[in-house]
From TrEMBL:
Keywords: Methyltransferase, S-adenosyl-L-methionine, Transferase, Ubiquinone biosynthesis. SUPFAM superfamilies: S-adenosyl-L-methionine-dependent methyltransferases. Gene3D superfamilies: Vaccinia Virus protein VP39. It comes from Ramlibacter humi. GO terms for biological process: methylation. This is Ubiquinone biosynthesis O-methyltransferase. Pathway: Cofactor biosynthesis; ubiquinone biosynthesis. S-adenosyl-L-methionine binds at residues 43, 62, 83, 128. The gene is ubiG. It is an enzyme of class 2 (transferase).
Amino acid sequence: MTEVTSSSLNADPAELAKFSELAHRWWDTESEFRPLHQINPLRLAWIESLAPLAGKQVLDVGCGGGILADSMARRGAQVLGIDLAGKALRVAQLHALEAETPNIQYREVSVEALALEQPGHYDVVTCMEMLEHVPDPGSVVRACADLAKPGAHVFFSTIHRNAKAFVQAIVGAEYVLNLLPRGTHEYLKFIKPSELAAFCRPAGLDWVATRGLGYNPLLRRYRLDDDTSVNYLVATRKA
């Protein structure tokens, strides 16, 4: 598999390099990716509560090392995970082989390119913790919508842009609690729910539900709740 580095892609080379450098640690549950392992059961359960996965064609956009993609395949979905960080994808493929994960494939391809290749193909599309890492999140949203069948669910998660989010998601998570490596996020790339909604509407995605993702530093546990002021998840449906 050849790593894609074209400057024409909707990707930040520095972001790809950052996640590729950490690729070998994706499946270490005590590594920098511990938060993803901890929140995965929460987001998986929420996705399944709205869109049961068994027997469905599912696309995971920005899959990284495959934490969510792998768990969706184990729920009976036929899953394709895509990303532009080649090293992370190789880790995902190796894990799938070692863990004998059924019904899963990975490809190094942009979501925009795949949308031209497979329009209207998927029953469920997920794009989690990715939009705040790309130059043009609206392009990603449009491509996710194009890949979805009519009536399909499309899920996003990202981070609100406000003072509270800056304090909690950057200062707190990266510098105080050390939950994430410093420099993981850039505040100006955070996305307000109103901005995400503005991307969804012209793409033909109807807003279905929203949940907040909170963290208790004393218990070191995550939870889904109604507070969308920092981390939040959105479920949409293709018209």
